[in-house]
Amino acid sequence: MKFPYGTADFHAIRCEGYYYADRTDRIRTLEEAGKQLLFLRPRRFGKTAWLTTLENYYDLARAEEFDELFGPLAIGQNPTARRNHYFVLRWDFSMVDASGNLAEIRQALHDHLNSRARAFFARYRDQLGAWPLTLQPENGVVALESTISAARASGHDLYLLIDEYDNFANELMHGRRADYDALVSGEGLLKTLFKAVKSLASGQGIDRVFITGVSPVVLADISSGYNVSENISLDARFVDLCGFSEAEIAAVLGQLAAEQQRDRDWSARMLQTMRVWYNGYRFGYEPGPGLYNPTLALYFFKALATTGAPPREMLDSNLAMDRNRIDFVARQPHGEELIGAALDPEHPPVIASLAHRFGVEDLRRAPRDAPYLGSLLYFLGALTLRDQDAMGRLMLSIPNLVIRKLYVEKFRDQRFPNYPEREHLRAAAEGFYSSGELAPLVEVLEANHLRVFDNRDYRWSNELTVKTVFLIALFADIFYVMDSETAIERGHADLSLIVREEMRRFALFDHLFEFKYLSLQDLGDTAETLRAQSREALMAQPKVAACLDAAEAQLDRHRQGLEQAYGERLRLHTHAVVALGFERLVWRSCSGAPA
Fold this sequence. Notes:
Layout: H1 10-15, H2 26-33, E1 36-40, H3 47-58, H4 66-70, H5 74-77, E2 87-92, H6 102-123, H7 125-128, H8 140-153, E3 158-163, H9 167-175, H10 177-184, H11 189-200, E4 206-213, H12 217-221, E5 230-231, H13 246-260, H14 266-278, H15 294-307, H16 323-330, H17 335-342, E6 350-351, H18 360-364, H19 372-380, E7 384-388, E8 394-397, H20 401-415, H21 419-435, H22 439-449, H23 463-474, E9 480-488, E10 491-499, E11 510-518, H24 520-523, H25 527-532, H26 535-540, H27 542-566, E12 572-580, E13 584-591
Parallel strand pairs: 1-4, 1-5, 2-3, 3-4, 11-12
Antiparallel strand pairs: 6-8, 7-8, 9-10, 10-11, 12-13
Helix pairs in contact: 6-8, 9-10, 13-14, 13-15, 20-23, 21-22
């Protein structure tokens, strides 16, 4: 099998024999949905591949290739009347450089519009004949108008495709607010451009528009310039327009297993790995099966096909920059609280509904209970729709482990910024992976990392606080599948580190944690008193001993479930940990089966 990782061109995918997940049956439904459509999905979620599918389907210059490109696909068996019916103009705003000053950014946008117009005239030379292209270097709208005039004179309307409409504006929004405002506010260039599209799509040559992007923020900020699009992002008919279903993932793994003559359990193990790391996205209000990020899935498939093993780094570096989006949300009012809540699976963020029309000012001035920040994290792919509560409110959650890694890294940078301390933490964690000895790790955490909390944090401290500290300290996705609130039969373990299958040949143990928390008030002690006592004396206190006993009992039950799932492959160490405020940690560890 060949996988189009890094290739979003439908024509190349079909002509060069790459794997293609057929969604072309939705083309007919899209035609019925409206003439100006907006489709939002997170970065690297297959939007460009879909846009090029539409481009090849509607392009009148591709008519002779229709059977080759679409014949075996769903739409090829029953095409619509509009197939190969349009001149197609495609803009890709991810190509607009946002690194310069405001004047340079404006010029970069004009340059892109002019460049696409020149490519349009070159492509359709036979249909347009000698019709002249009019360009003005500092006014790309003139190129659009010239393009449409030529198309209409040739007897066909135009289909406008806009890819990543918010890309370069998002880059400005995250770091250069003044330049962003200048482009979208008042008579800003982006607003002016979309006003022109709106006008030309009202019977003046643009028949249809399909726009992709990540969030509705930019469109909301230019809403008075372009308020005619229909947002189909949550339409039940299109929730799986981009992304892979688990059935598709399983089918690919089955074919790879046959090609590589793998043992009977290999496909199931690979599917479980992919499910934990890449699955979990839901784009509709009603509960349903999760979707896999297509770029990450293809990244994984390509590694299996070329090396026979999963990629060592489960997070494709092309998505690592999404941390910047999480940082942007964290800087908004109450943003850090929301991101912290996202790491608590027992009390997930809840919003009444997703916000569809909100701009930068709405984010900046959002009251604490506003849905804007939760909605933005959803659109960014950093949160997804998990379920609805008894009130019908939307429960959000982190979709999978690869996104959890972004949260963990954000908190690690924030809480533990100093290099020497982070190096001590790394060395202690690496020693723990292969020995199961908690003492060196606890010494580092007590000396440095628990102390980052101050007295104000005591009012919201709980087991989650301690669990988050350990998750950040021990997160090592190269070696482990790490999960918080791991489902084990009917219970949930607080934190698990299960060795990745391809890493079991190394000297690594599996680890399972259960955490308890006792406040200073629970203990009737002061911070100074706790620091002065030995760990043995603290463990002997009745309340502490009772917590340790309860945690060990839970771990014994969880161990049985893991042993049934992993059999002899499991080399499990269990750790019952009790936090005494933010001052001390006590624990009991057990290797092998409990007595």
